[in-house]
Amino acid sequence: MKSVTKSKMIRMPLIGDVMMSGARTVIGIVMGLVAGGILIALSGVNPFAAYASMLRGAFGSLPAFSNVLVRASPLLLGGIGVAMGIKAGVWNTGIEGYMYLGAIGAAVVAIQPLSIPPILHVLLSFVVGMLFAAVWGLIPGYLRAYKGVNEVTSTIMLNYVAIYLTSWLVSSPQPLAEEGAFYPMSKLFQESAQLPILMRGTSLHPGAFIGIAICLLFYFILNYTPFGFRTRMLGSNINAARYSGVDTKKQVVFIMVIGAILGGLSGAIEVTGLKHRVYMEFVTGTGYQSVAVALLAGGNPLGVILTALFFAALKAGGATMSIETGVGASMTDVIIALCVIFVIAVGVDGRRRMKKKTAKAETAVTTEGKEDEHVV
Amino acid sequence: MVENEFALQMQDITKRFPGVLANDRISLDCKKGEVMGLLGENGAGKTTLMNVLYGLHQPDGGKILIDGKEVQITSPSAAIHYGIGMVHQHFKLVDTLTALENIVLGMPTKKAFLDLAPARERLMQLSDEYGLHVDPDTEIWRLPVGQQQWVEILKSLYRDAKILVLDEPTAVLAPAESDQLCQAIHRLTEEGRSIIFISHKLREVMEITDRVTIIRDGKYIGTIQTKEATQLKLAQMMVGRPVSIVRQPRPVIEKKEPILVMKDVNANDDRGVQALKNFNLTVNAGEIVGVAGVDGNGQRELSECISGLRKLTSGSITVKGKQVTDVVADPSFIGFIPEDRQKTGLVMDFSVAENLIIKDYYKEPYAKKNILHHPVIKKHAKELIEKYNIKTPSGDVKVRNLSGGNQQKVIIARELDAEPVLDVASQPTRGLDMGAVANVHDILLKERNRGAAILFISAELQEVMALSDRIIVLFRGEVMGVLDGDKADASTIGQMMLGQSPEVAI
């Protein structure tokens, strides 16, 4: 970073930027892993053995890796939902809630014995799930765009509403609920509404592949469509967006609803692919981890693919590590949190260093901003 | 030991910002018990000079003497230590705290718990003494603006300021409050405190000050005894700069087709205060109408109303017969060079190529069937970079990395290349160096000769006079007067800019 001078950056802006942001992320992750290693060592376990066990747990065998993919599925979809928000300058932290709503929507269709081909039954479940979530996302979107309500507050509050709404819906005697169940849960989904298992002996469903495809789709949308252009403009400079004729309020609602739809799909896939029922509180923090995924990826859809897989590998491997070495299972969450903190910290530090280094050049090229401040 | 006559002497203060010489060897002194006026146009360097005094900027040259002793003022707290108090034009108060809390804020205390009782007593005493009455327990945001200013002044007095700087204090005051302020100023000077009174309102300066220092373009023009000055003389010293931008000959355009027609337009600023009052204006094709005026007299609102960014409270605006109701983002109709190019005109993190199409990105040929065509966008950028001589390694470079002049060229290329029927150029040369300024002027003249109607808003009187076919002077959202561009002279306009109608002035 220090060696990258201003002139070099100008000469190769794209490669330079990507390399710099990529390098920052990698450095942050490595620092997070090292700090996690220290904590593991403090808990009396050889960190190298622990990480080796984690690696084995994630990549040691095909079934192990399939587990990573299964865990990556909701993170990919939730992550891209949040990432679109980041690109547009809004914090869509409601993924958790959208997942519940998506799952409920899917359940409404999936528990019905419909005489349609399985593929259609699944798709119909998805559509209804996404619809439910979209309506849910419309609320914070509208509030943010037209009433100025902070979207972080409203989405997190609505998450709780969604959680308790789901708990109520899957407790008997509500129509969705399984009667006489030991734990509040919905009726079992029809077999025609369950996603296929791709590998025998595992629970590998196509969710992760759908997620990756959607990340690629949104990469394309962001960079190659007017809609994406508008979105990026909104996130970079809302004044300029307004000046360029963008209906910024409408665009904010769009982006929030898109995030909700993706969150809803994430929930729908989770229940049709993995759980085959909607349980009370079946999502435990995945929605919030999606925010971390998007944050780590800097809102870049391709970055979301990598970070979602990375988080999933940590989670899957973490389970193995916990079993084999006795490190607490919560250590995975600690490591994830450390990685996020370090990536953000390295990023901030880097930006500040950049500022110092180029302060003179910067002010020289933008004298007019300075003049406003000083020469009145 | 002889007591020093001067409370403050600033000698040959020079302050350079990258590309701008904000203060060029400016001297200012203030005797004990004296009100010193500091007069100058916007951008003349008044605030910079005061920021140097208050330790916000370090001067590149010159020295500051307080009570005859040379001092280094390294920070505002050092300035307070030396007995300097400042009331900024934009108050620096915490809105959600009470007046009393604001006044004690930042005062060092040795106690573990805040004991406001002595502070309250002292505050009451001060407000009685100077006739600046404020309820100490009201939150700032509940106070009228005038009283907020009392709080600022009391805050300085609470710190026993010997030298009080008032930066455009009357801009926010009602007439009665202005009188109150005058009385307070008299009482302060009677005690031997010194006041530096910054303003560009001549009448007040004449009434309140003992002496006036005039600066212009960052340069020291002179200091005169107020008694010996006339408003006319002050106005001339303030705006009468040597002309270095020459008015160029221009073809006469006979046909008078009205393009921009504004009728009885009223509009508010961001705070909801009326910024344009019953504003009427017609700009014809092939004509440059220059808007002169001190910044903040409705210029921003005027340009935003025309481009549809700001809603009118009443009245109507039509461009070529078409009513402006919503944001007009069509450069083939209205080209709008906004006042704040980095905040409004550009997306700094977008490339030059992208910035050149931020209004047209969804139109052919840049987008076809909802897909952006990057090769076309790049080719378009290449053409405009060449045509407008934008200095950039390529169209892929982020606009952030360009110089101010080249950033402005990007905006001009985008806004004017499609040959709009109306150009609105708001402060298009602000912060640019001479070469870039000349370039902008050339382009605007060419636009005029092409037949575009041009509204040219600038705080630089000189360039308004050099470019305009007609000049309107804006004061507090109203047209103070309309002048012929060929005949207008600087001092008349200068007086109108200060809110004096020309009959009175001449």
The share of residues in helices of chain B is 25-40%
Content-based structural category of chain A: mainly alpha
CATH topology title of the largest domain in chain B: Rossmann fold
Sheet of most strands of chain A: none
- Tally of DSSP helical segments of chain B: 17
Number of strands of chain A: 0
What is the number of helices of chain A?
Answer: 15
Number of strands of chain B: 22
Radius of gyration of chain B: 25 Å
Mean pLDDT of chain A: 86
Largest interface: A-B, 39 and 60 residues
- N-C termini distance of chain A: 37 Å
The gross shape of chain A turns out to be globular
CATH homology group of the largest domain in chain B:
P-loop containing nucleotide triphosphate hydrolases
Overall geometry of chain B comes to globular
CATH architecture type of the largest domain in chain B: 3-Layer(aba) Sandwich
- What's the Cα radius of gyration of chain A? 23 Å
Instruction: State the secondary-structure class of chain B.
Output: alpha/beta
Unreliable segments of 5+ consecutive residues of chain B: none
Approximately how much beta-strand content do the residues of chain A carry? Answer: under 5%
